[in-house]
Amino acid sequence: MKVAILDDYQGVALQLADWSPVADRAEITVFTDHLADPDDVVARLAPFDVVFVMRERTPLPREVLERLPRLRMIASNGKVNAAIDMAAAQQQGIEVSGSGGTAAGTVEMTWALILSAARALPTENASLRSGGWQTGVGTELAGRTLGVLGLGRIGSRVARVGAAFGMDVIAWSQNLTPAAAEAAGARWVDRDTLLDTADVLSIHLRLSDRTRGLIGADALARMKPTALLINTSRGPIVDEAALVSALRADRLGGAGLDVFDTEPLPAQHPLRSLDNVVATPHIGYVTDRQYRRFFADAVAAISDWLDRNSGAAR
Q1: Could you tell me if 123 and 235 lie in one domain?
Q2: Does 314 reside within a domain?
Q3: Based on the domain organization, do 116 and 94 belong to the same domain?
Q4: In Å, what is the CA distance from 240 to each residue of 15, 33, 72, 213, 234?
Q5: Domain extent for 65
Q6: Helix, strand, coil shares of the chain as percentages rounded to 5?
Q7: Same domain, residue pair 86 and 140
Q8: What is the pLDDT of residues 148-168, one digit of tens each?
Q9: What does 28-44 look like in DSSP terms, one character per residue?
């Protein structure tokens, strides 16, 4: 049996879990680089029976899965991985497993981005490192309005932190009710009021056909020119071209982004260089405890599959 671990950017997969239950029965290969071209992905994965994928780093759509006749099992972190074509996997007889996890890392990352953008921490840090001193005037959050777009397990915790900072917390999503908003410590408002009044707009929605492009040019135009847009969910929820245009024209106060349309973000992408953007490389869930859970659950799932499929390599 051959097992591939994909997109282990930091080279930590084998360190953060005991892989011996798998290694005793299968050959494990770890890939620390990322392949974007589907043909390259197919060529890499052709020899493997089992693949572990980290989030949506390497998509496994039908056109890839159908070209991998040897693949029998996919392990992924998280309960849902939108980058795996589940119908195609089922039709190919490929078993798919998920893992547990927590919301803590993404909640904390959201607030790291909010505070970094509000106080221009990257700019101030760069000034100090280069021998300079203070360069601007930061934004105080107390008394300002935090708009939470999506009040689920992550958004509700972001809302509670906002209240602790003394912010007026408002929220909206398609299915959110006033009662549910109140239970999470927020005040329900309609979509236009959320956009019009938020000093910080933080996005916490799953990517779907309904949410793709939800924050487009019209939504960005409604926002205050001093407002901060924070996205730690999925890049395509925001129209990236419209966002870049608004940031370049100073129609927004700034953005804090951990997710993008294309990941890794292309080297020459404008979001890498705009002064009013704090950008991080999708690390909201990249924490020690989260990774240990992800990899431990992957070992358990793959080991269980090997127990049930000994000698079943194609």
Answers
A1: yes
A2: no
A3: no
A4: 36, 25, 36, 9, 11
A5: 2-98+287-308
A6: 35, 15, 50
A7: no
A8: 999 999 999 999 999 999 999
A9: EEE--S---SHHHHHHH
Strand order in the sheet with 145-149: 187-188, 168-172, 145-149, 200-203, 228-231, 254-257, 277-279
Domain count, the chain: 2
101 touches 77 (CB < 8 A) = yes
pTM surpassing 0.85? yes
The residues assigned a catalytic role are: 234, 263, 282
Residues 55 and 163 in one domain: no
Residue pLDDT, tens place only, 172-223 = 999 999 999 999 999 999 999 999 999 999 999 999 999 999 999 999 999 9
Lookup: tokens for 255: 């953005």
**Are residues 159 and 73 both part of a single domain?**
no
Q: Following DSSP, what letter does each residue of 89-100 receive, concatenated?
A: HHHTT-EEE---
Q: How far apart are CA 166 and CA 185, in angstroms?
A: 12
Q: Is residue 108 part of a domain?
A: yes
